[in-house]
Write a structure and sequence with these properties.
The structure holds 2 protein chains of 2 kinds.
Chain A (H helix, E strand, L loop, with lengths): L1 H24 L3 H26 L2 H28 L5
Helix pairs in contact in A: 1-2, 2-3
Chain B lengths: L1 H24 L3 H30 L4 H34 L21
Helix pairs in contact in B: 1-2, 2-3
Classes of the chains: A mainly alpha, B mainly alpha.
């Protein structure tokens, strides 16, 4: 089961790395914001998997809960900020 | 129980993969948001449910295992409510700044601004 978790974690890491393409080359600023949110979502699952691999799930589950909250608030703040300044490319 | 956990995790990974492919290949900001906004939510829900089931079965439903599994389900439920909210807020912000959705022949299906207030 350990090696299965490591395999899933490596696949998620590859997906995160692929998503950096949109952060670097995204045509609009909104593509970059979605990309950050999506990477954050995959990181939540990756943190829980790391907790299972290192056998410290009682610590890592709190970290990933905090990360999910911050990711949500961050996306909302970005949406509010870019709605205000109308000329954002 | 291991098999159930593996099936849930592989289903979650499948939805993450399809969301990433759609995110890279769709032509427009709105359609990209459509791909990630759904695959994202379903992927995190399935993965965390599978991990909670695995943890409960591993520790024979003891009290600390139930607390940790309920925290995992809490993350899943929070993201099930919060992910679409964040997607909607971001989409509203993009629409209000005047981005027209992409169409195949290049003609916009809506007029901008939609209505004079």
């Amino acid at each position: 089961m350990e090696s299965f978790f490591i395999g899933i974690g490596l696949a998620l890491g590859t997906l995160i790395f692929i998503c950096f393409y949109r952060i670097v080359f995204g045509p609009t600023v909104y593509d970059r914001i979605i990309s950050v949110g999506f990477i954050g979502t995959m990181t939540v699952v990756l943190l829980v998997l790391m907790g299972f691999i290192f056998k410290r799930i009682d610590m890592f589950v709190d970290i990933s809960l905090m990360y999910a909250l911050l990711n949500f608030v961050g996306t909302l703040v970005f949406a509010k900020y870019f709605a205000k300044n109308k000329g954002a490319k | 129980m291991d098999l159930v956990c593996k099936v849930f995790l592989l289903a979650g990974l499948f939805f993450f993969t399809t969301a990433t492919i759609g995110f890279l290949r769709f032509p427009d900001f709105y359609s990209r948001m459509h791909a990630t906004g759904k695959g994202d939510t379903l992927g995190i829900l399935l993965s965390l449910i599978g991990l909670a089931i695995y943890h409960l079965a591993e520790h024979h439903f003891s009290w600390p295992a139930i607390v940790i599994a309920s925290k995992l389900i809490l993350i899943a439920v929070f993201w099930f409510l919060g992910g679409p909210t964040a997607t909607h807020a971001l989409l509203r912000s993009a629409f209000d700044t005047g981005r027209i959705p992409w169409t195949k022949d290049g003609r916009p299906v809506i007029k901008w601004p939609p209505k004079e207030k």
